[in-house]
Amino acid sequence: MNGQEIVITLVVNWQTIGSLLFGLLMFGLAYNALVHALGDRKEGYTGLLVVAGVLVTLGAVAMISWQAALLSLGAFAASGTPMLVGDVVRHIW
Predict the structure, then answer these.
(1) Residues 6+ apart with CB under 8 A from 43
(2) Max avg pLDDT among 44-48, 49-53, 83-87
(3) Predicted structure pTM score
């Protein structure tokens, strides 16, 4: 970084973090039930289901730090896009 320093201060509110983690756990249980109920209909769309779950998680992170969520979104997009495209291509062909 051309000599610039970025300082991010994060005040930790454990009640908020605990509530968000509990909410994400409940979401995860419900989302798992939905994916299970989809059965074979999810074939070829598993990658998109993963993306949706990651976006919900990043939404929770954004409630604590939008900067961290934005950085994580960029990292997930960079690493996950090839897999997502590959999943769709493998299903089509």
Answers:
(1) 91
(2) 49-53
(3) 0.80
**Cβ proximity of 80 and 51 under 8 Å:** yes
**Nearest of 7, 90, 81, 84 to residue 47 by alpha carbon:** 84
CB neighbours of residue 93 within 10 Å:
5
CB 67 within 8 A of CB 8: yes
Is the model's pLDDT at 15 over the cut of 70? yes
Q: Where are the domains of the chain?
A: 14-92
Query: How far is it, in rounded angstroms, from Cα 13 to Cα 20?
Result: 11
For residues 18 and 47, the model is more confident at 18
